[in-house]
Amino acid sequence: MLHVLYLVHDLSDPATSRRVAMLKAGGAAVSLAGFHRDREPAREVAGERPVGLGRTHDGRFAQRLAAIAGANLALGPRFRHVSKPDVIIARNLEMLVFARRLCAQFGGDIPIVYECLDVHRLLLRRDGIGLAMRAAERALGGTAALLITSSPAFLREYFAPRGQIGAPVLLLENKVLELGPVTKTAAQNAPVPGAPWRIGWFGALRCRRSLALLSAFTRRMQGTFEVVLRGRPAYSEFDDFDATVAAEPHMRFEGAYRNPDDLAAIYGTAHFAWAIDFFEEGLNSKWLLPNRLYEGCRHGAVPIGMDGTETGRFLDSHGIGALLAEPSANALTALLGSVDAASYTDHRARVAAKPDNTWICGPADCRALVGRLEGLTRARADDKILEAAA
Fold first, then answer.
1. Is residue 147 located within the same domain as residue 10?
2. Is the pLDDT at 116 greater than 60, yes or no?
3. Is residue 294 in some structural domain?
4. For the whole model, what pTM was predicted?
5. Does 209 have pLDDT greater than 60?
6. Angle of helix 14-25 relative to helix 363-389, nearest 10 degrees?
7. Tell me: the pLDDT tens digits for 68-114?
């Protein structure tokens, strides 16, 4: 059985438990280690007890550097009970530091996989800090056996033109992991005469501009539209998130949710899913294909995307969703202001008509991922045979 050591920057990120579950469903044994962002460290993630590396804080890069340095000093003792893995997956740039160190600690012949599902804004700066960060990524990822990323735009706009990583690429979109039989979602979010249209903004809530835009739009629509927010707000990105939302007459924050347990319930009550993010406008936010795109469509909500982004290209190529021409209340009013039961039903039917695998990652995908990782170990073994023969 393939043994994977998975190193992550945030054990509490739902993407962590999804990837661990995916690896296990594909037939791999998983050891997990990483930092945590919540007050208390995670005791268990997808059935695995992780090796804790300490706590980091969102948006505080200097603190993260200090935490990385501190964890690096104690790396040996923390992993003394972990058996030698066949493959190491490093999620994000900082985890490549540990991957390289642990690879040497375990014997130096382990394939390293670099998983990059977001391109951090520090990597995109045009000053000395950006140059140093990109140089570090090239140095640390130079020996990676595989690059895993979630959007073709990351390859097209960042990795390929800048020559950051020369490894083969595996595209793993942020699809909803479902390991059991796939069932169609009932039309809970069918329009009700006289009730407001509901936009769901779920997941990582970090975009101040989206909040302002949705606020202006719902006030203009005077109660015919409402916005429900669920998830984890990045409080460092807002002046006062809770007070701002509480003051809005047609917006409300309903707290965190369990992913994937609550996805059907929260998206099932939303007519539209907000799949727009201006957090790193023109850069990462323009290139990503967010979780909420797949989650919303899987559960019958019509996605709202931004024209000129990778999400917009995705929606356009599939002939679904509503595309916002520009980030303004006027444009959003023009896009949604005349929606009625007939037009909405047509929107929803086009989403529902797409094949399940457009949104869902199933057991076959899990086996394919583990098979790709096993191929790395076979390639490494073949290289050793060739070296010995030479």
1. yes
2. yes
3. yes
4. 0.93
5. yes
6. 70
7. 777 877 787 889 899 999 999 999 999 999 999 999 999 888 999 99
Could you give the 3-state DSSP secondary structure of residue 16? helix
| pLDDT at site 61 | 66
C-alpha distance across the termini of the chain, in Å? 30
Predicted local distance difference test score (pLDDT) of residue 183: 79
CB 319 within 8 A of CB 329: no
Q: What stretches of the chain show up as alpha helix (H) in DSSP? A: 14-25, 61-73, 75-78, 93-105, 128-141, 152-154, 160-162, 208-221, 241-246, 263-268, 284-287, 291-298, 310-318, 329-336, 341-352, 363-389
Burial of 39 per CB tally in 10 Å (0-12, 13-18, 19+): exposed
Q: What is the mean pLDDT of the chain?
A: 91
> From CA 36, how far away is CA 51, in angstroms rounded?
11
Element (H, E) at 55: strand 51-55
> Is 67 a residue whose pLDDT tops 90?
no
Residues 6+ apart with CB under 8 A from 53: 33, 34, 35, 67, 71, 78, 98
Greatest C-alpha distance within the chain: 78
Q: Which domain holds residue 166?
A: 3-177+362-389
Peptide bond into 363 cis (omega under 30): no
How many C-beta neighbours within 10 Å does residue 305 have?
25
| For range 318-343, the mean pLDDT | 96
Residue 293 and residue 203 share a domain: yes
Classify residue 45 by its DSSP letter. B
Q: Residues 150, 18: one domain?
A: yes
Q: Number of folded domains in the chain?
A: 2
What does the pLDDT average to over 8-12?
A: 92
Report the SS3 class of residue 197.
strand
CATH code, domain with 87: 3.40.50.2000
User: For residue 3, what are the β-bridge partners?
Assistant: 29
- How high is the pLDDT of residue 191? 79
